[in-house]
Amino acid sequence: MDAKVTPALEPGLDFLALAQTICARPLSDMAPAALGHARRAWLDTLACMAGGAGEAATRAAARAADTAGAEHRALVLGAASHALDYDDVCMIATCHPSAPVVSALLAGFDRVNGEVTLADLLAAHLAGTEVMLRLGAWLGFGHYALGFHATGTLGAVGAAAAQARLLRLPAAQLRAALSIAASSASGLRANFGTDTKPLHVGFAASAAIRAVALAQAGASASDDAIAGFAHAFCGGARLDSPRFDAQTPWAVQAPGFEIKRYPSCYLTHRMIAGIQRLRQRRPPQTGSAPVAIDVLFPPGAAAPLKYPQPRTGLQAKFSIPYCAAIAWVDERIGLASFSDAAVSRAELRPQMRLVRSAERTGPHEPLEAAPVRVTITGAGWSDTVLADWAPGSLQDPVTDDELLAKWGDCEAHGQAMLPADAAAIWLTAALDQPMKAPLRHLRAALLERAGAQRW
User: Fold this and answer.
1) Which domains does the chain have, with CATH numbers?
2) Which of 26, 133, 264, 408 has the most CB atoms in a 10 Å sphere around its CB?
């Protein structure tokens, strides 16, 4: 280590070295199980893009951007991937790992000289999400608690790592790209429930494309930038060196990514699952009176759920009373549950008024495993359940058939005219399958649905 480096910067340099090691790992060092999870993450994220391609945030991004360039395509695709809040999550960093990474790769894959294989895309996804999540794990929950949308902030760095891996950047350019991306990171939780939340993913993917291009063009950046990123985005808290190394199993394997079953904020999912479990035990009868629903969250888990009386479908995704009410009243929760029309249903209001929530006292609990307790009290009865694991986690996984059904629902919702084999290829294609042609067709369909005039 250079003797001039101050102790405060050393952990940042340790992380930069780790990121460099992650991006250099050969395909032979990537477990088949990790590659299998990456296939499913691509399929799930592209499904969310298809569903979100016609949403307001995506169409605004398309109108504002010249989508002929990779940087601007990334803005539109990133917004589409997160517009429904249906994309995968990983709580070791309290973020959505695949959306910014897949958006940047889909926007910029044609900058690769020669063909791009499925293996290239999966390896880039693993590298990018790993850098993103390990950066978030190093910063800890304090970053999110300060009010940052970690998907946007961490996503800029992770997506840059993915793009750098795909382009096989030399080590010096990789370090510069990550450092430039760190200076472009942004995203505030205060914008949850608005079109700006999905735009955060577009900002991150676009920043990643731009950072890599600048590094390739010779722009210099400081190796201290990651240390500066960590210091600034943790409110000046001193961080120890990263407590993991390149031999740690891929995050997609442990603790895994949660593939969402419900198109709402992930932190509502255990609550919804618990209420639905109790609903199966005591199904409500037609005309029956509303029930009292009490929910106990882990510390900090209710922070983004900021809309007690949502007025729009976007706000409803971040509403404890609304999500609890539809989990009890409706037999199925899907994309239609979060339309503006669904939110305005008068019959939900009495049930929403009987939803109460609180957080457990005590220190922060790891949100990937922290349980949610749900108690429902009706006329002459009361029942309680502890929801230990989120729907879609490795402990309660989504099957391939369920994932393909989710693709179909998203495709129908988004009305994007996708190629017929667009879904199956991610589950069945060989690793050496050439991907440039199918990716171009898929990207064109998504951008056309978003209203882009050029792609």
Assistant:
1) 10-260+396-450 (1.10.4100.10), 266-387 (3.30.1330.120)
2) 264
Q: Please, what is the average pLDDT of the chain? A: 93
CA separation for the pair 263, 360 (Å, rounded): 25
At residue 91, the 3 state secondary structure works out as coil
Residue 195 is given by DSSP the state T
Q: Which residue has the higher pLDDT, 367 or 195?
A: 195
Contacts with 47 (C-beta within 8 Å, 6 or more apart), sequence order: 86, 403, 406, 407, 410, 411, 423
Cis bond before residue 255 (omega within 30° of 0): yes
Closest to 33 measured CA to CA, from 368, 366, 262, 257: 257
Q: What is the pLDDT of residues 33-83, one digit of tens each?
A: 999 999 999 999 999 999 999 999 999 999 998 778 999 999 999 999 999
Q: Are residues 107 and 74 in contact, defined by beta-carbon separation less than 8 angstroms?
A: yes
pTM for this entry: 0.93
Q: Which residue has the tokens 């069945």?
A: 428
Token digits for 332? 């199925």
Q: For residue 294, which of 355, 372, 353 has the smallest C-alpha distance?
A: 355
* Chain position carrying tokens 């979060």: 338
